[in-house]
Amino acid sequence: MATSSQSTVGKVIAIDFYCSSCQKQGQWAEFYCKKCLKFYCVKCIIKHGKKFVKHVPYGIAEKDKWPVPRNELQDLHEDKHIEKFCYIRIICAEVSVQGDPDQVFSVEGKSEYDVSKPSDSTYDMDTRAICALSDDQILVADINNKRLYLLDHQYQVVGHSELSSIPWDICQIAPNEVAVAVGLNMTYGVQFFSVNGGQLVNGTMFTCQHQCLGIAYNLQHLYLTSGTALYKYSMIGDLLNKLYEDTSRWLGLTVYKCAVSPSGDKIFITNFEHDKVLTLATDGSVLHTFTDPDLRGPGGIHVTDLGQVLVSGFSPGIFTILQLDGEGKKKLATLATERDGLCRLESVCYNRGTASIIVARVLSNKILVFKVK
């Protein structure tokens, strides 16, 4: 049966469902299949989709179609109300007030870490993406060795996994699960990984008919960039639509990396060729175009849980990390430059657990960590 806990603080009720297949591991569900009458996590819904092609599961965005015990929520003091619903955890929690997406970071210090494992690597590392998980573990994508490295909270390598293709970008899809955009020699797609017991676990993969350079996740959808276009996919690999395209440089990077706002109403993409950051609506229409003398060759882009927008510049002589406002319309601050040790930036992310901005560098075994407040 499901477990439940209550808090005397606040009045907001949050309902979490456990995956019917992974209940013993306590894995949260993110899909519900009305045909099967079961809940599924991301990993299990992919297996379900292959077995039951005609079933149409409902994701978190359609939670109103899940069997939520709305009437029983009026009284949470009796365990008998909970017993009727397996795989459900009901929690009373304090209301979390959304932060200010325009709250400017202040850099307080910098550290550098070598994340290589010479004994295991054929070539020097070339890190093109970095992702911080909820428990302060870090994932680094190395395209030279086609590997995903797992770092602990002290930025020490504790594990790695081989990939069949080059890992260009990473996004978090669950507390301990990520999706990796991979692509090499006409083999393009998304590879799923989970972290279990401090180890990387290789999951399923789906393929795409286009290059996959950037990836972002929101509300059970994946957003993939090809270099010239932005696509929206389901979690099981169905192409939903092409949202945006810029073929002004056919083999260029006019649609390079992407990120999505926490509310899901804005999608940010970097145009490396034209030194721009674009803010798109969910239908792909352009809301804002950002340019600035401090931004040349924008590569990595990241949006924090509060909606703060970080972007890294790649051009020699103007290596920078900028913070934009939550709309992507203007620069709020230049957080770091080449004087701070920036060189050949490709990826940037924020680790909420340690209040740090982490930067991955091309053709380097080292990452930079900026302590911020």
Describe this structure in words.
The structure is a single chain. The protein has about 375 residues and is mainly β. The chain has two domains: about 80 residues, no CATH class; about 270 residues, TolB, C-terminal domain (Neuraminidase, 6 Propeller). Helix content is about 5%, strand content about 45%. It has two helices and 29 strands. The chain has a four-stranded antiparallel beta sheet, with no helix packed on it. The protein has a four-stranded antiparallel beta sheet with strand order 7-8-9-10, with no helix packed on it. The longest helix has 10 residues. The radius of gyration is 21 Å and the shape is globular. The N and C termini lie far apart (about 40 Å).
Tell me the domain tally.
Answer: 2
Which structural class matches the secondary elements? mainly beta
Bin the strand percentage.
over 45%
| CATH class categorisation of the largest domain | Mainly Beta
How are the SSEs ordered, and which strands pair?
Elements: E1 12-17, E2 31-33, E3 38-40, H1 42-51, E4 58-59, H2 79-83, E5 88-93, E6 107-114, E7 127-132, E8 138-142, E9 147-151, E10 157-162, E11 167-174, E12 177-184, E13 187-196, E14 199-208, E15 214-218, E16 221-225, E17 229-234, E18 239-245, E19 258-260, E20 267-271, E21 276-280, E22 286-290, E23 298-303, E24 309-313, E25 320-324, E26 331-336, E27 345-351, E28 356-361, E29 366-372
Antiparallel strand pairs: 1-5, 2-3, 2-4, 6-29, 7-8, 8-9, 9-10, 11-12, 12-13, 13-14, 15-16, 16-17, 17-18, 19-20, 20-21, 21-22, 23-24, 24-25, 25-26, 27-28, 28-29
